[in-house]
Amino acid sequence: MNSVVLLTAELLRDNKARDILVLNLQGHTSITDYFIICTVTSSVQTKALVRNIEEFMGRYDVKPMSRHVQIDSPWVLLDYNHFIIHIFLQEGRNFYGLEKLWCDAEVLYSHEGNNL
């Protein structure tokens, strides 16, 4: 599962997501093993990123357990059971501060560039 998580982080980077972070939550919570967190700059980018993620996961026959996708929302969530992808607009990421809540989790991947 770790390889799919890291490949997903690379997909986010290739699709111009910013400030990508993969947190290993094993031993910290029972809800999931990994959080993948990123920031996007617009609802258009959110929509394209969700589409690309779902196409990518389809190649591995991985389907989300749940998806909370309201494109104009500051936070979109795709729950793949063992990992959860969080796509934020900057104001949503600042407000919810997931990486601060899980600051004791191991960082498996970090890409802070803005790629723009």
Give a description of the structure.
With 116 residues, the chain is α+β, with helices and mostly antiparallel strands. It has one domain (2-111): Beta Polymerase, domain 2 (2-Layer Sandwich). The chain contains 4 helices and 6 strands. A hairpin with a 3-residue loop joins strand 4 and strand 5 (83-89). It is globular and about 35 Å long.
Task: Summarize the helices and strands and which ones pair or pack.
Blueprint: H1 2-14, E1 18-24, E2 34-40, H2 43-59, E3 66-68, E4 75-79, E5 83-89, H3 90-96, H4 98-101, E6 106-111
Parallel strand pairs: 2-5
Antiparallel strand pairs: 1-2, 1-6, 3-4, 4-5
Characterize this entry briefly:
By secondary structure, the protein is α+β, with helices and mostly antiparallel strands. The protein has four helices and six strands, in the order H-E-E-H-E-E-E-H-H-E.
Which structural traits does this protein have?
single chain, 116 residues, alpha+beta, Beta Polymerase, domain 2, 6-stranded mixed β-sheet, 4 helices, 35% helix, globular
Q: Name the CATH homologous superfamily.
A: Beta Polymerase, domain 2
Radius of gyration from the CA trace? Answer: 13 Å
Distance between the termini: 30 Å
- The sequence of SSEs as H and E is HEEHEEEHHE
- Provide the CATH top-level class: Alpha Beta
Query: What's the number of domains?
Result: 1
Q: Summarize model confidence as the mean pLDDT.
A: 92
**Number of extended strands:** 6
Task: Note the beta-strand portion.
Answer: 25-35%
Q: Give the strand order of the largest sheet, numbering strands 1, 2, ... along the chain.
A: 3-4-5-2-1-6
Which structural class is indicated by helix and strand composition?
Answer: alpha+beta
The low-pLDDT segments are: none
